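Sample pair:
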Amino acid sequence: MREKANLEFKEKISDSFLKTVVAFANYNGGEVLFGIDDKGEVLGLKNLKEDAIAIENKINDSIKPQINYKIDMNCKEKIIRLKVFPGEEKPYFYKSKTYKRNDSSTVEVDSLELKKLIVEGQNKFYDSLSTNIDTYSFEYLENKFREIVGIEKISLDILKTLELVDRNKKLTNAGNLFADKNNCNLIDMVRFGDNQNTILSRIQLKDISILEAFDKCVEKYKEYYQLENIKGPYREKVELVPEEAFREAIANALVHRDWMHNSFIQVSMEKDSITITSPGALPRFLSKEEYLNGQISIMRNPIIGNIFFRLSIIESFGTGIRRIKNAYRDSRKNPSFKIFDNSIEVKLPVISSADDLSDDEMIVFKTLENRSLSSSFIADETGFGKNKVLNLLKDLIERNYVIKIGRGRGTKYSLK
């Protein structure tokens, strides 16, 4: 038996356990076992009843507000089990400080985490809190509602109904994000070359409506990851990364990210993938498995999510991960999802190179990855005849996968 995030051992009764009690009450609850040393060895207590009363008095006298807990005595092993339940009036304080668990240790929370606890204790969401901003415009939002919903003008009453403006006519945090001008860092998009040491272009979307940032982000995606193949009189769109998956990943990042962090959503655009990293861990009480399976959705920003839903940017709450996965249903490659303590990463691989190519075309395609080669060299590498290689290259060029470089004997071929 060892100490964990929700379990701590105390050899004897001292005030130090009160910090851990505060941490348990602030978050997911936990237990403190008295009469057990740090190694998990049961040493026992001399007077269970007196120690139990001392524990109760220390908690009641030192922790504010009052927490919900239970004390049990194990007379056989002479230990006391203190069970602390998650509180509803967080944050809880001991000597004017509040705490959280970091693995098996108890640490003081920083100012940002304290703000989160205060919001949670008020049973509110960050995007619903009021600001002091009373000068604003919503032209971009109004144009979207006119185009998609059919509402010609967004009145003050509609803004209040959408919870973008409070009853005092001041913006909520959600309203600040949807306003035409704000002070928010939204999306940082970087287009890399052959590796991350080479930056080809960069655009930082900030101080604009969250909807405008979403649209600009999709435009930049189309610039790099959508092609047009010409087949006779027709043009055929080719998506190197499924647009549905990209739109859903960006929308999810904007709707579910932690906006208390005024940092950018990072979009890394590389030859073989797009990686979207959004600030903030999973919402509390949502497990990694539930997130990945799309079983339930715990909204961190319900006002933002509601407007994205009204504008048909997201389909419905909790379906984002399933829709991203579904966009890759016919592909040999799959998106990946990583969950960290302070961020969530979604990686969307380029799939056109693995989707609609024949086996022989795929061999030539793979041979050309990250290099430019002559048709003779390709023939030697693949074992195909020279004429077959030229025919395959011609088809790949017509379909916009390969480009021809140079003329005559110096002709080489490269992936586009």
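The two ends are 58 Å apart (CA to CA).
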